[in-house]
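Lab meeting notes turned into a lecture example. A postdoc, R.K., suggested we walk through two folding results consecutively so the class can see how the record format repeats. The first protein's sequence and structure tokens come next.
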Amino acid sequence: MNMFTFTRSVTTEWLRRSVWLSFVFFFLHHGAVSGQTPSPSPSPSAPIKSDTDKKAASTSPEDKIKRWFEFDQLSVASRYHFIENDNNSKAANNVQYQFAAKFRFKFDAKGKYSVAANLATGPSFTTLWNASGGGTGRTQKNLNFRQLYFDAKPTKAVEVQIGGLYVNYGENTEVTTYDNDGYITGERVLLRLPKKLYFDEISVTYGRLADRSTPNVFNRFKRFDQQNYHQFLVRKQINKWAGFSADYTFESGMDTFHQAVKFKLPKKQIIDTFIFENYERTDPDRSYGFNAFGEKKLNKIFTLSGGFANIRIRALNADRFPPGKRIYFTAIAKISPEFSVTTQFTQGVGFIAPTIARTRLDIIFSYNFLETLRRTRLF
């Protein structure tokens, strides 16, 4: 057994034991509280509440739902999707649709222990979009749990996750790392001890990043122990204006470093947010790529953003950014709290391989059900 295999085995075992310890901690803690804390007897001078007072103090239906469930996203969308390759062939010219529901079930009221899930459309690692049948491509009906994992936060400083996870990006984006729609199965430990360890977050992840055409997390659980991925990440918010992150990622024999710095600029500047990020592939083939991104919120309705990216390898990063140099622009119009229209345009510059996308246009219509539920006080 070599040193890497031994270290991975020990770390994986430690992560699994951490999760079980978190379970034990949770049940022992709540068992002790319920078993040792008697209900206080009312003092002679304490006023006796009437039935009316008790009803007023009762929990509302909204609070009852929030006690057990917490939603991060509940949305539907449709888009016009167009891609033209460098050889002028149309790779896509169709209408697609999307559904996404990200939520968690809380074992305790504070949400220290929960099961998080993402139920969404999409046939693969790099997309949540299904073809509607209008235009190129056959109708797709994919709907799967792409993420499903147990999350334990026994203290503010420690968090443990195990199951079908999201990728941890740090301050990097999907342009230089992995697509936002991606998934892994494995284990993660996060430490948040900035006063003792300087960094706001230190993250260690071991898992399997594969099965690109298997979005169903239950099918991917069958190969849970066949790990090919690990990541070590640090993140630091220097002040209210600037933050950075860096990570080392191993995936199926490939060694890659990612770094990113993010600036939040004062108001009345040309842009509100600026990100510079890059990757460095060191093995087996050396490669370097980067992305420079800026965003400006013009008013309550319109937001503009754009940038320049140079990606030199085929990877599982955002499908908008295959190998080549590209300029890109995004315009978002938030018509109401629920409804928005997004236009994304990406154009390759310089040399682009003949069968690689040079021009891409997406026009997206999104409806956020979560805003409706919040407005009606259901969540």
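The second example is placed directly after the first for contrast:
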Amino acid sequence: DLSDVIGKICPYCQTPIKPDEPVVFCFACNIPHHRQCWDEAQGCTTFGCNGQPTTEPANQHARSTEAIDIDVADIKVRYCSNCGSPINERDVYCSTCGIRLENIVLPRNSRIPARSQSVENNTVPRRRISYLLIVIPIVLILGVLSIHIFYTNDEAATGGKTPRVTKQSEDEIDFIKVKKVIQNEGVSGKFSVYLKDLNSGKEYYTFNKNEPFIAAGLVFIPILIEVLDQAEAGYIDWNSRVRIYEQMLVGGTGLLNQKDVGSSYSIDGLTTLMMRYSDNSCANILIDRVGGLQQINGKMESLGLSNTRLNRRLMDTYAMNQGIENYTSAKDMGRLLEIIVNKNLHELLSKPEKDGMELYLPESCTIYHQIGVLSHTYNDVGIIHGPSSDFILVILSNGVSNDVSKRVIGKIVQTVYEDLER
């Protein structure tokens, strides 16, 4: 399907392929390039592809680097309702602005394909309907009884008093109030919460503590840890400078843009922009500087953080549309924040605007945190200092609307803070 070409990012110039542009496919990796970019680079520019240009004689067993020209001028495409860029039929994210394509604009002459007749005429047998009518009420009754028993036992265990956030069990800590905050909101998605009290050293968990969640902008923290370690080992000089080229710039959040092309930034400056302003372009530059995604993944493995893995670069919409994502877990992220605490680098997590965890906290509280956001993914992790409390808090969510997640996260933070302060 040649419509797949439209909107894909050329790996050489980092701009989307438009309907009226000549396209070349690399036979080695099947990644599309602009014809002009292919000719200028004299081959494929995809990292790790056997079709990359080389000055040495080609190995006789190397894969062919020939290419095929494709005319995409006549392909009918859709357009992103956010930025107006062309998108192909199966894309989930816009390759230009990165927004999730939940609302799209179709060309005037296009129409949504009708569902097949076999699907539309498929009906549920009457016997199955009768079975469901019997089973569903039984399940609902059992559910109500279970909830009643849970709350009755809870009140009996606490003498009718409101329980504290935490209750010691045999092997871990159970968040009583935190669970109730989530239950009271009636959300259908998933949450994972990790808390470490820096004064007592105790750890608390609830819900999916070791389950991988989509990391979104939380990937800046693993990148930061690798940059810090290489700087301490002398492999990176904080004052060394990187010249900015147009192909380094990507969409999404951040301050680095076209006006910065030709200028240079120090490693220290790029790191600050990545952390303080969630700059995607700076993150990609730093990934290259430390040796790539595998280098960062190796660092996470050496720290025992098996659920944290970076599988794609920032704003790589080609990979995103293939379902490739970056992952972490609440427990892993808590460990990384503890490293930042031990290095006394809280300030790198300071934010210019009040959002997320800060929503319901008093002015007497100081918070350093990192937010990671995609459609139906809202994560917030932070280091929080109150008048008498110091703690690390990680809250991950998936399958919940961002507005609801933000409200629930704010209430969880407020609940934990008030409990640890009393």
